[in-house]
Specification:
The N terminus is likely disordered. The protein is mainly beta. The radius of gyration is 30 Å and the shape is globular. It is found in: Cell outer membrane. This is TonB-dependent receptor.
């Protein structure tokens, strides 16, 4: 083996010495034909494109990325939205903004995010105990590049089966000398315009960012500081069946009170095109319209010091801070269906169906629920790190890196992290939903709120908290062997602790908290409901119930607490939590890899390595036992809790992960790559954390719910094959084809186990219940059953009548007795019992049209797995979430004064969940979605520039459905977001 040619120079200005994922050098490429001659220095978009290609070309394995156009100028305002431009990467949006990423069909929990090569903690109260990193917490101004490693490498930390994403920040030694800039933006989010006047935020909000970097004249000292503040007022309006559908039921099934009447039975004449005897059908459970006003303030900052005491030793100390504060005000209108045999419905043909129209008639007025929420959360991330890179001698480099990082999320409101005040008018008669439009149309022609005014009903105040801490130390080195090989080695230790707590204060006064006269009509404001859904088909239907009622949360909360005479019942519990779970993972690792250049007929570079890891898991969980089941309302059976206990569980596992990466220079401008290896993805924290958690309310028809994790879960292990062909036909242009296949084992399958817990007895099916059925009540008419028990057995064991509710039914409690049936819980748990294959292909083109300034980026990703959700199967199923095809097309123009990007991103339909809003086994699909974003920049001079950006310019809406496309679960309308700004470089 001889040295075939000189080592390749790294083109990136932000060299990978700043990243713990150092890119091994390769041999220098010969000039691309036709590119010889005077060198032209490019800047802006074209420089970013060229640096991105160099990152891809000079890396081991298959790597993609995005490089900042200039210091403090990343291509997108949100990092997730930048990542979606990369082939194989899709994003999940929240409130119209990129939040989490899916790579090659593997969801957010199976993609590892690093900051400068360091594993970052993450917390998210909307996804408590998940591992997926929320990119909306990080501003883009201080980021110099994103590196997406799609294949495994021995020196890469584990956790990313889909990809390992390294977020690289700028450091002063990357750009010697003094550089600084300041930027300001005005943001206009049109989604804020489609909200009730009482909750909408400011029409225009500010963003300010600045960056300063300087090095000493002798190059020994460097300091950089970046900071940004962003305020955004926005909203979204959503409609659908958030709690899913009842069922599915078999057309031939006879289940009293839940299924459609059989042919010839009373009520069957009201069914049009009744589902066939062998068909599965589902019945709507509820219908909901809501509007949400969201205000966000995001603060980011990073301070970096670098010191080079001698030429060959560079030390770096950095501190990163981010804070994301979100305030949400939500108002909603909802109704619940009782699945009565008096329903009228029409159905499509098919083996799995949901109704086109569905209506119910009630013997007594039902409630129209008017719900309001007013809560706020704060997420704070902090990281302090130290890095030392030492060139000991020619051919030997050593590096040490350590950091302590935290992420913490909690309530930022006196009303807890999430809450709801339910108010109701007991005035609903015939209730119908029409699903033949994009917007489901709710009709309540007989509703009379003047005769039955709105009054306070049930409520709940949640207080969630999560903190994650990572302490990590890594030491690595590289040793030149002979002249064409390099030995890379390293050891590491990572200590990760994740703690989550939760408490709930709930009032189950769904029939009315006090008397209606306690709540003056002036507390509730009427708004035009259709105006909030004007982008959705059907919003102008004359049958749509046209009024959405809103109210001041704090005012109604205070009025209710005063009327009830109990302030603590209408505030969250900030004391000892109901649930407290801590999971700790300690991982020690070591790796060894050998990189070599081979003097064959065509130049070949190989990297062969192995990584060994040992992980110890410790789980401590508080459990809250239940002592009784109490029937308090039509369908609700709240549990009575008392006492506390803790469970402790330990487990461990070891993984040996080989990696082979090979690339061959077919020509000076063409590469062929192959990669084989194994990677792992750890289970979510809530899947690992022990401790049994009971749902606070059981249901008359479906029983109770519970969940328990499994600390002994092993990580998913994936055996990967990747192939890639890349043609770099000029400095800024590329055509590539990639194929990948992943064989995943030890997938944690979610299973539902039916069991009784804590010897809890339910009054449903007991002696009082049977007596009510014997008197003529049906199982479907739970109001009749309650009235009979409360009216005839008041004062008997377990029965206490307290009065008459607003809907004229008796109010009171019926407690399960020891002679009553045991309550059956559907308990969710996890086990390593699933395997899956994922394969796909990526096509990627990047082309600049000569010196015209015009360019094009386009890619398409195809992803396939034979393991898909079977809509005709009523049992709990395992299927890969987030699996979808995706495509991007980006048009570019740039000259000395102007830079323009027009980007279209598309993601096909994908399975988002395998349980619905009521935690039943049911699919949730997200419909295909396409969005257009535009950015325009104008350089007034070399220091001053202006920017105009538009996000979601096509005003796309989002939708999710269930087992059938017609079974709308939710449809969301937001709106475009516009930004105009200026940036000055000093």
């Amino acid at each position: 083996m001889q040295k075939p040619f000189q080592r390749r120079l790294m083109y990136l200005a932000v060299a990978s010495a700043c990243s713990a994922l150092a890119m091994p050098g390769h041999a220098q490429q010969a000039p691309v034909p036709g590119t010889e001659g005077p060198q032209v220095i490019v800047t802006g978009i074209r420089a970013s494109m060229q640096s991105t290609l160099n990152l891809k070309r000079n890396s081991d394995g298959i790597v993609d990325g995005i490089v900042a156009e200039d210091m403090g100028k990343f291509p997108d305002t949100n990092l997730a939205e930048s990542l979606q431009r990369i082939s194989g990467v899709s994003i999940d949006r929240s409130n119209g903004e990129g939040q989490k990423v899916t790579v090659r069909g593997l969801g957010p929990d199976f993609n590892l995010v690093l900051l400068n090569g360091r594993q970052m903690p993450t917390t998210d109260l909307s996804d408590l105990s998940g591992r997926s990193f929320d990119f909306s917490n990080l501003a883009s101004e201080s980021i110099s590049q994103l590196q997406v490693y799609k294949t495994g490498r021995a020196d890469s930390p584990t956790g990313g089966i889909g990809a390992t994403i390294n977020v690289v920040t700028g450091r002063p030694f990357d750009n010697p000398g003094m550089h600084s800039s300041i930027g300001v933006k005005a943001v206009k989010d049109t989604s804020n315009d489609h909200l009730p006047s009482g909750v909408k935020g400011d029409s225009v909000t500010p963003e300010v960012s600045g960056i300063y970097s300087n090095t000493s004249a002798d190059g020994r000292f460097g300091v950089s500081l970046s900071a940004s503040f962003q305020s955004r007022d926005s909203g979204f309006n959503r409609a659908g069946l958030f709690n899913g559908y009842q069922g599915p039921y078999l057309g031939s099934a006879v289940i009293d009170g839940q299924t459609l009447p059989q042919p010839g039975q009373p009520g069957s004449q009201n069914i049009t095109n009744r589902p066939a005897q062998d068909a599965l059908y589902s019945i709507p459970q509820n219908m909901n319209y809501n509007v949400a006003a969201v205000q966000r303030q995001r603060t980011n900052g990073q301070l970096t010091f670098q010191f080079r005491p001698v030429k060959d030793l560079t030390t770096t100390v950095d501190y990163t801070y981010s804070e994301n504060k979100i305030q949400t005000k939500r108002n909603e209108l909802s109704v619940w269906f009782a699945q009565t045999p008096t329903s009228t419905s029409s159905w499509p043909s098919g083996h799995v169906v949901s109704p086109l129209t569905y209506s119910e008639v009630y013997p007594t007025p039902q409630d129209i629920s008017v719900v309001g929420s007013d809560f706020a959360t704060k997420t704070k991330n902090q990281s302090i790190g130290f890095n030392a890179a030492w060139k000991v001698r020619p051919g030997l480099k050593l590096e040490f890196d350590a950091h302590h990082s935290t992420a913490e999320s909690g309530a930022d409101s006196p009303f807890g992290s999430e809450n709801a005040l339910s108010n109701a008018s007991f005035s609903r008669g015939t209730t119908k939903v029409d699903f033949t439009h994009e917007l489901p149309i709710l009709s309540m022609p007989a509703a009379n709120l003047a005769a039955a005014p709105i009054q306070a009903a049930g409520s709940w105040f949640h207080n969630g908290y999560e903190k994650s801490v990572i302490k990590q130390a890594q030491a690595k080195g590289s040793l030149q062997l002979m002249e064409a090989s390099e030995l890379n080695f390293g050891v590491g230790y990572t200590d990760t602790t994740n703690r989550s707590t939760f408490s709930n204060v709930q009032n189950n006064t769904w029939g009315g908290a006090t008397k209606a006269s306690d709540y003056p009509a002036s507390l509730y404001q009427a708004n035009s409901l259709p105006s909030f859904f004007n982008k959705l088909g059907g919003a102008n239907s004359p049958d749509l119930f046209a009024t959405l009622y809103t109210f001041d949360f704090a005012k109604v909360r205070q009025v209710t607490a005063n009327a009830v005479g109990n302030q603590a019942a209408y505030l969250p519990n900030f004391g000892v939590p109901d649930t407290d779970r801590t999971l700790q993972e300690k991982t020690t690792s070591a790796y060894l890899s050998l990189s070599s250049d081979w003097d064959l007929k065509i130049p070949v570079h190989t990297s062969v390595g192995v990584r060994v890891e040992r992980t110890q898991v410790s789980s401590v969980a508080q459990v809250l036992p239940a002592s009784a089941v109490v029937w308090v309302a039509q369908n609700e059976l709240p549990l009575t809790f008392g006492g506390q206990a803790f469970s402790n569980t330990d487990a461990s596992y070891t993984n040996v992960l080989p990696a082979l990466n090979l690339d061959a220079d077919l020509r000076s401008d063409m590469k062929l790559r192959a990669s084989l290896g194994a990677t792992i993805g750890r289970a979510r924290y809530d899947q690992l954390q022990g401790g049994l958690t009971l749902g606070t309310i059981a249901n008359v028809f479906t029983g109770g719910s519970a969940s328990v994790g499994n600390p002994a879960l092993k990580p998913v292990k994936s055996k990967n094959l990747d192939l890639s062909w890349e043609w770099y036909y000029n400095k800024q242009s590329l055509m590539s084809l990639a194929f990948f296949r992943k064989q995943l084992d030890n997938y944690a399958g979610q299973t539902l186990v039916s069991q009784s817990l804590y010897d809890l007895h339910t009054p449903i099916g007991g002696a009082y219940y049977k007596a009510a059925l014997g008197s003529g009540c049906t199982a479907a008419d739970t109001n009749c059953i309650r009235d009979y028990i409360l009216g005839n057995f008041d004062g008997q064991p377990g029965v206490k009548k307290t009065g008459v509710k607003g809907d004229k039914h008796l109010d009171g409690t019926i407690t399960g007795l020891s002679t009553d049936p045991l309550l059956v819980f559907q308990t969710t748990t996890y086990a390593n019992q699933k395997s899956a294959n994922v394969s796909g292909a990526e096509v990627n083109v990047q082309h600049m049209f000569g010196e015209s300034g015009f360019g094009l980026q386009a890619n398409y990703t195809y992803v396939h797995s034979p393991l898909k959700y079977n809509n005709a199967d009523v049992n709990d199923q395992f299927a890969i979430l987030g699996l979808s095809n995706s495509a991007n097309v980006v048009g570019i123009f740039e000259n000395k004064e102007w830079s323009v990007r027009v980007a279209y991103n598309w993601r096909d339909e994908f399975l988002a969940a395998t349980v619905d809003g009521s935690n039943r086994a049911a699919p949730v699909y997200t419909d295909a979605y396409g969005q257009v974003d535009v950015s325009v920049g104008y350089n007034y001079n070399k220091n001053l520039s202006f920017q105009l950006e538009a996000i979601n310019l096509n005003d796309a809406t989002q939708r999710q459905h269930g087992r059938t496309f017609a079974s709308t679960l939710n449809v969301t309308q937001a709106g475009p977001r516009y930004m105009i700004g200026a940036r000055y470089k000093f």
